Amino acid sequence: MITYDQKSWKIQNQRIFILSAAIHYFRLPRSEWGEVLDKAKAGGCNTIETYIPWNFHEMNEGEWDFSGDKDVAHFFQLCADKGLYVIARPGPYICAEWDFGGLPWWLSTKKGIQYRSSEPTFLQYVDKYFDQIIPIIDEFQLTKNGTVIMVQVENEFQSYGKPDKQYMEYLRDGMIARDIEVPFVTCYGAVDGAVEFRNFWSNSKHAATILDERYTDQPKGVMEFWIGWFEQWGGNKANQKTPEQLERECYQLLSNGYSAINYYMYFGGTNFDHWGGRTSGEQTFSITSYDYDVALDEYLQPTKKYEVLKRYHAFVKWLEPLLTNAEQASSDLKLPSDLTSQRIVSPYGEVTFIENNRNERIQSQVYHNHSLVPFTIEANAVLPIVCNVNAGNYFKIEALTGRTTGFGSDEAVVYQEEGQRSSLLLQLNRKADIDCPLPNQFELVEEDRIAFRFFHGSQPQTVQLLFEDGSTYCISIVSRQSMEGNSVPLKKSTSIAPLKWETADENLCFLREGVKEVEKPLDFSSFGQFSGYLGYESEFYSSETKETTIVFPRIEDPVMVFCNHQFVGKLSKLGASSIDVSVKQGKNTLTCLVQNMGRYNFTQSIGEPKGISEAPALSGKHLSLLGNWQVEGCGVQHHLSQIPKIDGRIGFLSSFLNVGYDSAILVGEGVSRVNVNGKPAKMLMDNQTAWGKSSAVYGVADISDALKQGENVLDLDVQNISNIRRFDLYLFNEREQIHGWKMKSCAQLHEEKKWTLSENGDKQSVYPRWYKGHFSWTPDQGTIVKVRFNHLSKGCFWVNGQCLGRYWNIGPQEDYKIPASLLAEQNEIVIFDEEGLMPNDVVIHSYTAFAPLQEKQFVINLPTSQKIL
Fold first, then answer.
1. Are 806 and 595 spatial neighbours (Cβ–Cβ below 8 Å)?
2. Where in the sequence is the domain holding 670, given as residue range(s)?
3. Could you write out the DSSP letters of every residue in 248-292?
4. How far is CA 732 from each of CA 354, 658, 665, 833, 863, rounded to the nearest angstrom?
5. Which helix (H) or strand (E) holds 200?
6. Which helix (H) or strand (E) holds 480?
7. Does residue 860 sit within a domain?
8. Phi and psi of 793, rounded to 5°?
């Protein structure tokens, strides 16, 4: 039922162009699944792609959950009910900016496990996962009761940098053994028997060349066409990919022969609860929103990219027989400089794609069948010129230089930028009268050939062909701007503020049930906790009152530090860090609070120990090693922010002085490529990936074995590295490490709290606190509900008992989604704020949604015909 050749996919022997929307069922409530699928279909998509996160369904070992918002079978059934094909991507690793790349947190407690490999322990648990998820996919295969047409094996495995043929084959064979019979696909995976896709945003020609070189019998497809991008705490707003750029790249895909596109994302959604992950690097934690700046926003509302793709999909659907049976052909057009062309041909016609690489609009012309056909192309755009395509029994389109959503049985729409012109050369199959209102014009080229010159003004116009049998063909001439006028702006309906707040202090007392006593701090997994918050506390003695530097040899999340129950600061540098603390003579108490900000989802070092995992040490020392580097044999000093170009294998050297310390941790970019006193750094974590080999990578190394007293020499390999932003050394003595710790889960919603009424303007010291408020809501106030945590610090929040995510007021996220399906007439919001800042300016907004999507209707009063043919 599902086959393919070099040109396209076929379903029941009919060629099909795959237009797939990436929609993750796990990033929106079940109550919204139907709406988002309807909008994707209305936008022209014929397929839905989703990852399946293993950890979402097996939160704790052996406890499986496929109910409610986790009912993936229901999601597949909805797709089938709505006539949408499905691409299933079950992993077991999925990346997806999702915690641990979809792997369950508890896997990291298994001794000797090697993730994403043929190591037996890992495969043992993969088999248990496959026993649960593959039968669900099996039931919904197109060959059985559903619409699943492809299943992906693993995900981006070759970009992981550790090829393992046996592992990939094991996964493939495991799916076959569990009755998967639809085609297998991979992206950067390359396993026999699977169709290989690529992932990219631009330069589709390069990816097409790679696919053509490696595969002679497979269609070209992009599994992740990155039309937007995710965002990280403290980073920039990721809205750099404009609708105009999206349109250009879409037509580039057609010009290079792609016949399968999956928009990643089409709808992004939300990282509710604590599911947001961490990409390669140090401070690279995903924000709660996964809006992704794509076609349907986080609140399921169409964007300008939705309109771009809707028009593009209509064009693709019109030319589907051509595009799915096409071959690349030479193009001999004579074009102005900065214009290039690519041409595809098929039995159904041909398309020439003109590309404008200038930053300005260009007017030119092409010759077609002895006729001059003018065209206009916008700056940095791609214009498809359609040639020799039949439009029913009425006429053949010899050349069209305007954009179109397709020529149907009796009507068409041709559009261009407002104020611009386009051309249409037709060969009629029968005689017709022509109604062509000014400012549009036409002329008779030959007895049965007509050349139109359209003007796309602010007011739509209609050109009519009136045939002898009484039938009429209408061509609407419109501007792109008028076609994008379908949506009603989002209207603010209600501001639900101010709220009356109750407050309660977080209980950081370690003298009660639930406290675990350990010799050294444990990471989250070793403690037995998926995410959220952990508290750490220990006592140490000082012989005098003094200032001391406490070194934390291994941390992978920001840490709040208290000494003697007074807040002393936050550790924001990860890997290892240090803080200066005033201690008193005698007994002191060190308390730490850590929020798990997400496990790595894309790096060679997945499975890092979250939280604090090594004992902090007193009387340590921190050195920044960014300065005072020199090329071997040269006296000029360099800073790592401006690394000189070094040819060959000449050393790039620096040194530091060690007096009295026996332990050292090196953290920062470039660490995985450094020698210490002639010995390679012993890596604890190296976030290098195949996509990042040419840049400095973040790593953590224990260099204690290479450390010596006095001068220590560092030799850094800086080939292909132009700058390094962090290179820190932490020195300490093993005997100064603090042992004997108490640990407990913190920031637990269900724990009993002593609530008191919070007074506006309360001045409080930095201390983690809870806030609780109530608000009323009815659907007529709007079904799009957002909360903004103005002037709070960092934490998480719950609405009606459900955790809706982390918040952190360092940007770029400002608004946080509250699903309307969670709300009743009376509602409760609970906030945990790490610094205990007052929630006086927290505000909840409710908005009305866009009006239902409607097709644009053009009502035209036709003037008298210019000329009769």
1. yes
2. 623-732
3. HHHHHHHHTTEEEEEEEEEE--B--TT-B-EESSSS-BBPSB--T
4. 64, 10, 9, 33, 88
5. strand 194-200
6. helix 480-483
7. no
8. -105, -80
Q: How far apart are CA 448 and CA 460, in angstroms?
A: 27
Q: What pTM does this model have?
A: 0.95
> What mean pLDDT is predicted for residues 401-419?
96
Q: Are residues 615 and 630 in the same domain?
A: no
| Residues in CB range of 373: below 8 A, 6 or more apart | 365, 366, 367, 385, 399, 401, 423, 425, 451
**Is 854 part of a structural domain of the chain?**
no
* Residue 641: count of CB within 10 angstroms of its CB: 11
Instruction: Point out the catalytic residue in the list 32, 224, 249, 506.
Output: 224
pLDDT at residue 634, as a whole number: 87
pLDDT at 490: 55
The two three-digit tokens of residue 609, written as one number: 């120990």
Q: Which of 670, 701, 732 is the last residue of a domain?
A: 732
How many C-beta atoms lie closer than 10 Å to residue 649's C-beta?
A: 8
Tally of domains within the chain: 5
pLDDT tens figures, 671-682: 989 999 999 999
Question: Among 485, 435, 427, which residue's Cα sits nearest to residue 854?
Answer: 485
Task: Give the integer Cα–Cα distance in Å for 618 and 739.
Answer: 11
Distance separating alpha carbons of residues 528 and 108, to the nearest angstrom: 10
- The CATH number covering residue 186 comes to 3.20.20.80
Q: Strand pairing of 184-187 and 194-200? A: parallel
The two structure tokens encoding residue 508: 């950081």
Strand (E) or helix (H) holding 504: strand 502-505
Same domain as 636, residue 568? no
* Active-site entry in 156, 247, 537, 608: 156
Closest CA to 154 of 198, 191, 202: 191
Task: Report pLDDT for 207.
Answer: 97
- 156 catalytically annotated: yes
Q: Are residues 444 and 534 in the same domain?
A: no
**438 within some domain:** yes
Residue 49 known to be catalytic:
no
Say which residue the tokens 């007052």 belong to. Answer: 838
Spatial CB neighbours of 717, under 8 Å, sequence gap ≥ 6: 652, 670, 673, 674
Distance in angstroms (rounded) separating the CA atoms of residues 304 and 429: 38
Q: Count Cβ atoms below 10 Å from residue 336 Cβ, excluding itself.
A: 10
What is the DSSP secondary structure assignment for residue 644, as one 8-state letter?
P
Same domain, 278 and 367: no
Q: 741-767: per-residue pLDDT in tens?
A: 999 999 999 999 999 998 766 557 899
Tokens for 816? 């946080």
